[in-house]
Amino acid sequence: MGYLPQSVELFTGSIAENIARFEPEAPAEAVMAAAIEAGVHQLILQLPDGYETQVGEDGTNLSAGQRQRIALARALYRDPFLVVLDEPNSNLDPEGEAALARAITGVKARGGVVLLVAHRPAVLSTVDLVLLMRAGAAQAFGPRDEILAQLNRANQPGRDSGGLAVVPQRA
Fold it and tell me: Which tops the pLDDT comparison, 51 or 164?
């Protein structure tokens, strides 16, 4: 299982160590593969010491977007079957969002499952099914396009929403 929490925490150590979850003698190829899959490999190579760049306590030497992308690589390390992403695009720029979309598509292509929690709708293009939650209760569940169409109809002026509310929290 791979997990990217809403509040990204990196640990004092190198970028490679953080991606490898501090696995002793982690294969450099596996670390690099995860970074490539997360779309952060080139960014890492541009840092002063590449994969050996020290992130600082709680990742303070990196921007929020860089921390999030490295944490995505950590979630993808060793190709887990289940990848849970909680607000994975909260700190990403357009390039980071595109890399996230490619990573999600890659997990699905290799037969993995992605469970995604999101408030920002840009990442919805990568999902197959949507569960809309409101006040802790399921409001709608089904194929992405069907649920989004329901939400669009419910949001039209003069229409009864039938209990559906348009909220940005879609996953």
Answer: 51
Residue 148 tokens, joined = 């989004």
* Count of other CB atoms within 10 angstroms of residue 19: 29
- 138, 108 in Cβ contact below 8 A? no
Q: pTM score > 0.90 for this model? A: no
Tens digits of per-residue pLDDT, 109-148?
999 999 999 887 778 889 999 998 888 899 899 999 998 8
pLDDT at 163: 42
Relative orientation angle of helices 64-76 and 94-109, to the nearest 10 degrees: 10
Element holding 40 (H helix, E strand): none
Distance between CA 95 and CA 80 in Å, rounded?
24
3-state secondary structure of 71: helix
Beta bridge partners of 116: 85
Residues in Cβ contact with 150 at an 8 Å cutoff, skipping those fewer than 6 apart:
140, 164
CA 23, 27, 28, 32: dihedral to nearest 10 degrees? -80
Write down how long the chain is: 171
Query: Can you tell me whether residue 144 is helix, strand or coil?
Result: helix
From CA 120, how far away is CA 117, in angstroms rounded? 9
